[in-house]
Amino acid sequence: MNLFLFAAQLLNGLLDGFYYLLIALGLSLIFSLGGIVNLAHGAFYALGAYLAFLLTPYLGFFPVLVVVPLLVAGLGMVTERLLFTRFYKADPLYSLLLTFGLAMVIEQALRWYFGASPQAYSMPSVLTGQVFLGDFVYSRYRLFQIAVAIAVVAAVWVLLNRTAFGRIVRAGIQNPDILGAMGISLRPYLSAVAGIGMGLAGLAGVLMAPIYPVHPAMGAEILTAAFVVVVIGGLGSFWGVVVAALLVGLVKGFMIAIGQSAMSMAAIYLLMFVVLLLRPRGLMGERILRFE
Amino acid sequence: MFHHRRLLAATTALTLGAALLPLGAFAQDDGPIRIGHLTPRTGFLGPLGEYAVMAADLAAEEINAAGGINGRMIEVIKEDSVNPQTASTKAERMIERDNVVAIVGEISSASALTISQVTDRAKRPFLNTGANSDTLRGDDCKRFMFHVETQNAMYVNAEGQYLQSEGLVDGKNWYLLTADYAFGHDLLNAAKVFLDRTNGNIAGDDLVPTDATDFSSYLLKVREAKPDVVVSNLAGTQITSFLKQYTEFGLEAPVGGFGFDTASAWAAGGDNFKGTWPTVWTHQVDTERSQEFVKAFTDKYGKPPENQAFGDYTAMHILAQAIGAVGTDGEALVGYLENPENTFDVMKSRPAYFNPKNHQLMQEVYTITALPPGEQPNQWDIFTTSAPVPAPDQPLETLIEAAVGGECSFAG
Predict the structure, then answer these.
(1) Top-confidence residue, A209 or B161
(2) What is the pLDDT of residues A41-56, one digit of tens each?
(3) How many domains does chain A have?
(4) Of A181, A193, B43, B380, whose CB has the highest number of CB atoms within 10 Å?
(5) pTM for the complete prediction?
(6) Which residue of B has its CA nearest to A264?
(7) CB contact under 8 A, B209 and A213
(8) Is residue A221 within 8 Å of A49, Cβ to Cβ?
(9) DSSP symbol at A117
(10) Residue A75 sits in a domain of what CATH number?
(11) Which InterPro entries does the UniProt record give (chain A) (predicted)?
């Protein structure tokens, strides 16, 4: 295989990493702040894709790209208010059971209403076609997708690191008790973070609908890989999740490039295994007292 | 972090709970005839399993509406087979606790194998409606297992004949993408034997994990290899992912495949579906009986039946015919089914029969060809269906030439 193709494969692997990033980032945020392992996160990704399928005929793709993540974020905040709030102080096992059940309810509801067969969803015609960069040919839609993902991830970074909102969220991740002692209630922040996290999952759902099958189990499909990214990246670290997502994409692309595609998923788990063995906190995980 | 041990315990409990969902009541001899229906309803084969269940329900309704079998109603006990281990456990329970006279269903070749081991021990027929692996008809064949679904070799021959007629085999380069499990491996072997026999070359071949949704890395390799044909040995939702992204990456080589489901074409949508693919049956098959089935199915479920629906619908009617003739005893049923004198109306232009050597239902197959986006009358008719293969003057046996699964002996 020539060097050029190899480089193209690695670049494609990096780009593939964005697929995991949008899901894993929300998962990590919700867990870091509230301690809830949201097993229903994939289900909100599926909801995003199905809402896109439902609404695109009326609104068109680009409005849907804005409206659906907001709708899913709203659903996420409602879920947080009605369900998650009861479990922040409880044993993590309970919230695990809760979100596992919620994921099943959402998946089965989609299956009951839409059927198990994937729904046909085509990409907007302005984004079809390919982009030629010398010998490297790439899908125009994917470049658009990545541009949206980068913009959104950058926006989340600014929100967390350059605003008063972000300061409180970061303080809440480190030490909620001190924050409480200073008279700041975390409740609205917990809701907002759940909304942002699940809204990101919903956005991923809309972005993936044109290229992946839209079917009820799509959430379960992505969830395990997203967890792997969070574990590799480390809790509480924004950049940890970003680096881990790109790394996972890279490793997967590398395995396929060298002709070991059957091992491409296994390699990701092996990567997690090695990281856990050498650095249990994850690549860039911060030391968070209440999780130690 | 978490309490790991408790987490593990809870996860185990959840998994167990899913496997032990309660079944129907205990068996009674004078009650209805119980038939077990076991097929994957979740996972990457779930969309096909849903059609299987709808078709089995419809067939049972029809059989009961016509007065049952010799006056006895049938009752279908339905379960999600999930994976090979769970499939075997559930088959065992259907037989031990519900006393089903036969099991119908399955799509995964790996699960069909474990079910057939259980049914052979219990001496109850198992009518496989969706698993294609040649090995199930060869080295792993079982006396109590009958295959309503066509086997890989039949698809390879049907699709191969088409590709040959298009001049895409002799001296041409193929790129093969293969689902990484029993079905795909088996199909890859069959394809390689076909290429050896017909002087075709392999430009590249990759195994694709069944949970993979992104094909971009594969498509970059395909583009680099510049094949004359891209052939898919993929399965379930993989085919949909592949078709959508093949269009997305603008690859030009003709596409075909040896394994296919019309649900995958419908899910990819008219903009993305391309190529020519083999199939056991489609809703376009132009016989009176097929069109009656399509109408009944569409009236009941609001959409036309997929080819998986054909398998389970036909299997239920074949089983009903056999029970009507010889009763519910397992040995008697095997004797009836494997006798090639006993033919079955499978809604095609000629009747079908089971090959006594390996219990494969000998029947016509078809190829479907994508219509260009502008010429599709509706969301279902995005392809056309060929005339039956083989041609009317050819015997059905031509379809099983060069099967690669080994020799069947019912001793094992």
Answers:
(1) A209
(2) 999 999 999 999 999 9
(3) 1
(4) A193
(5) 0.86
(6) B209
(7) no
(8) no
(9) S
(10) 1.10.3470
(11) ABC_transp_permease, BCAA_transport_permease
